[in-house]
Amino acid sequence: MADMVTRFGASVDTGLLQHFDKLARAKGYTNRSEVIRDLMREFIVANEWNLDDKRSIGTVTLVYNHHAVDLSERLTSIQHDYHAIIISTLHIHLDCDNCLEVIIVKGHGKQLEEVANALITAKGVLLGRLVVTAVDGLL
Ligand code: NI
Q1: Closest alpha carbon to 35 in 22, 45, 48, 47
Q2: 91 DSSP β-pair partners
Q3: What pLDDT, in 10s, does the model give residues 27-56?
Q4: Across residues 54-68, what is the average pLDDT?
Q5: CA of 110 to the centre of ligand 1 (A)
Q6: How confident is the model at residue 135 (pLDDT cuts 50, 70, 90)?
Q7: How much distance in Å is there from the Cα of 92 to the middle of ligand 1?
Q8: DSSP letters for the chain
Q9: What span, in angstroms and rounded, lies between the C-alpha atoms of 52 and 10?
């Protein structure tokens, strides 16, 4: 990002600003500008990663029952198909039946969406979510 700084003003309801400041302090922010910068980055990532197919990094989180027929093998097979964009996989045995997997993915937005959809829609996956954390130009 460019290192030039621009100051700007904004008009908001007093109650909204007080609520915002209270939550920001509770989270540990020491000034309003830092919160606004973080929110702007979050807004850009949330709205830009798949629109412009930017290079992005994120995580796919899955919860599944490993007793589901062939599911573990199918999830492993999908991950092999996308080995070029999968950086690492963390597997936790949650209990006797269920597993949590967090898969770190890096590539163009559409690739991340494609591998996430393949994993999340595999029959037997109970919960799944792709979280894109950063896009090119914001780091
Ligand atoms: Ni497991």
Answers
A1: 22
A2: 101
A3: 999 999 999 999 998 888 888 877 767 889
A4: 94
A5: 28
A6: confident
A7: 6
A8: -------------HHHHHHHHHHHHHHT-SSHHHHHHHHHHHHHHHHHTTTTT-EEEEEEEEEEETTSTTHHHHHHHHHHHTTTTEEEEEEEE-SSSEEEEEEEEEEEHHHHHHHHHHHHTSTTEEEEEEEEEEETT--
A9: 28
CB 112 within 8 A of CB 39: no
* 17: confidence class by pLDDT, cuts 50, 70, 90: very high
The answer to whether the Cα torsion of 115, 121, 122, 127 is positive or negative is positive
pTM: 0.79
CA of 131 to the centre of ligand 1 (A): 21
Q: What spacing in Å lies between the alpha carbon of 84 and ligand 1's midpoint?
A: 24
